[in-house]
Design goal:
Elements lengths: L5 H8 L10 E6 L3 E8 L8 E5 L6 H12 L4 E5 L15 H15 L4 E6 L1 H12 L4 E7 L9 H16 L1 H5 L1 H18 L6 H10 L3 H12 L4 H4 L6 E6 L7 H10 L4 E5 L5 H4 L1 H24 L2 H5 L4
Parallel strand pairs: 3-4, 3-5, 5-6, 6-7, 7-8
Antiparallel strand pairs: 1-2, 2-4
Helix pairs in contact: 2-13, 3-4, 5-9
Length: 316
């Protein structure tokens, strides 16, 4: 009896919610490159905007597709593919700092104001950096399945140090013309696959997942290992909510709660789910996430009423 294909195994064993997938387009970020963006309007032209940042190895849509439609009943919802992911920017190097700069550039290109930046896992790390590097574009933060650093245990330190050494040794290759050309060719090939209408939501999810190479994931994981925001979390001065995945085996819940307690006034929204809750347990995650975004949006009014001198003084 022949073994089932990976696609057939996904259909049998992986729950994927059947929802409408919004269409997107390639957007040029001046001086940076092009990335794939979806821009779903809210209930009226003045709806507040939420920019959603995805997890490592995923795309904007693959992380957030269960949440986009219910979120758009109250907000304008924007997603993008981060560099080296999906149809994101194909640069010679990957850094979280560049990813944060890309988000700020997109905010400018789309002419967005009073933006709530929300991230999941890697996306939550980038969201922290968006506030750190471009505080003028951030009116609120929602951090999901997050942490302030990754080397908090012996096992984590060993893993990330090993990954960093490996990627450092390969960095010359990543900068070479041959490797850059190969990465761009792979990106174009997977983008073409994504343009083919899938037979069902499982087919779409498989193709979306395949659009990011294992090489790109390894580079991103190495970059995440160098993240450490603890020294400046206490200076975050915009309304913030932290969605804690209480059954998370990747980022321990106690670390997520610890981060939330370091951010002045941050609210905590618990979800009894694991690290893949954004899709695999979306029926639990999405309501908690919308609650978190709505809470941050309501608190933005108080933030806007504060004197401008006190709002930005802590960000030097």
């Amino acid at each position: 009896m022949p073994l089932p294909s990976p696609r057939a195994l996904v259909k049998r064993s992986v729950y994927v919610p059947h929802v409408r997938i919004p269409e997107g387009r390639m957007v040029e970020l001046p001086g940076r490159g092009s990335t794939y963006v979806t821009d779903t309007p809210g209930p009226d032209p003045h709806s507040p905007t939420v920019v959603l940042l995805h997890a490592v190895g995923c795309t904007g849509l693959l992380t957030w597709f269960p949440a986009i439609e219910p979120l758009s009943r109250r907000f304008r919802v924007v997603t993008l593919d981060q560099r080296w992911h999906g149809r994101g920017i194909q640069s010679d190097d990957f850094s979280l700092q560049d990813c944060a700069d890309d988000v700020a550039a997109l905010v400018g290109v789309l002419g967005l104001e009073d933006v709530i930046v929300a991230g999941y896992s890697m996306g939550s790390i980038i969201a922290q950096r968006v506030w750190r590097q471009h505080p003028e574009v951030v009116a609120g933060l929602v951090l999901c399945a997050t942490t302030d650093r990754f080397r908090s245990s012996v096992a984590e330190r060993a893993f990330h140090q090993g990954m960093e050494v490996t990627m450092l040794g390969a960095r010359g290759l990543s900068r070479s013309r041959t490797a850059a050309r190969a990465a761009r060719t792979a990106g174009r090939a997977t983008a073409r696959a994504l343009d083919i209408a899938p037979r069902d939501i499982h087919d779409w999810a498989v193709e979306e997942f395949r659009s990011t190479s294992p090489w790109a994931v390894a580079q991103a994981v190495a970059a995440l290992g160098r993240h450490h925001s603890r020294p400046w979390l206490g200076r975050i001065d915009v309304p913030t909510a932290v969605v804690v995945t209480t059954k998370d085996k990747v980022l321990p819940p106690r670390h997520q709660v610890s981060l939330a307690r370091r951010i002045p006034g941050a609210t905590i929204h618990e979800v009894a789910a694991g690290h893949a809750a954004c899709v695999m347990q979306s029926e639990r995650f999405v309501p908690a996430f919308i609650e978190a975004v709505t809470t941050v949006n309501a608190r933005r009014r108080d933030f806007r009423s504060r004197p401008s001198s006190s709002v930005r003084s802590a960000r030097a």
